[in-house]
Amino acid sequence: MAIYTRTGDAGTTALFSGQRVSKTHPRVEAYGTLDELNAALSLCFCAVASEPHRALLESVQQQIFWFSAELACEDQAPAPDQRIISAEQIAALEAAIDTAMGRVAPLRSFILPGRCEAASRLHLARTLARRAERRLVELCASVPVRHELLRYINRLSDCLYALARAEDSDAHQRNIIQEVTTRYLASAHAPSAKEPAMSLSFQDLHQLTRTAVERAQALLVPVVVSIVDANGTETVTWRMPDALLVSSELAPKKAWTAVAMKTATHELAGAVQPGAPLYGLESHMQGKVVTFGGGYPLWRDGLLIGGLGISGGSVEQDMEIAQAAIAAINVGTHQ
After folding, report:
1. Which of 30, 73, 119, 139 could be joined to 167 by an S-S link, Cβ 3.0–4.6 Å?
2. pTM of this prediction?
3. What region holds the Cobalamin adenosyltransferase-like domain (predicted)?
């Protein structure tokens, strides 16, 4: 059976009532834009990673069919068995918005559309939903349109925005995990080719702490010295008198970060800037990671044996104190 009828060759189309109107009629423009939106939603469905998002998008696609069918029925009330947009579907969109926005950090400025494919497609669909809303408002100027339809299309654009934010956030978190994993594995060594894992000796711990304190005293900067083992477990924390209370939190975090990332903390600063591979690492790790100077991994013979964190002075002073302590024992800060 041919799909072409030739009845539209003159620039008109038929409504459900059989009445023929121009293809530029506001009613046709409205449900035609919904058709565009539904096609865009199918691309969103294929791209999103979240299963709940996929289920929601599939439901919305069905609802867009109901919406379009109602618009195509000029001067006719919906049939008793016809599915229509109601407060139930609007409430479902609002619940989805609240859930998605509850998972992402608040924004205080405009953002560029998505940074992953799923979010980009959702943002594109959002703009089509806004256009459909404008066409619907235009149609309302000449014919009655149920208020629920206006409310639904307005909430739908908000919902697509919220889903885009959530998909972007999830994709970014996956990228961070992948980047951290890649860095960790790149610096790993086969245990069979090495001696049994070494650790910092009592003499090492004593010398590190003593030298750090002596250098801090020379600079007139009271600091907290923290040393962790190769697993990030705290082994020594020494707080000099009058050291800032916050330093008791920061020094262990610097030492832990240096071991967890196998990188000096000041070297992470560039990697967490917007657009860099680890952007958002600090917030995703809930403040456990520190990305300013004063933390160093401790390597010996190619093995990671611990981490040192200094906090209390300026970033430069913390780094100077840490470097002085490291120089006092037989370790390096790079593999």
Report:
1. 119
2. 0.58
3. 3-166
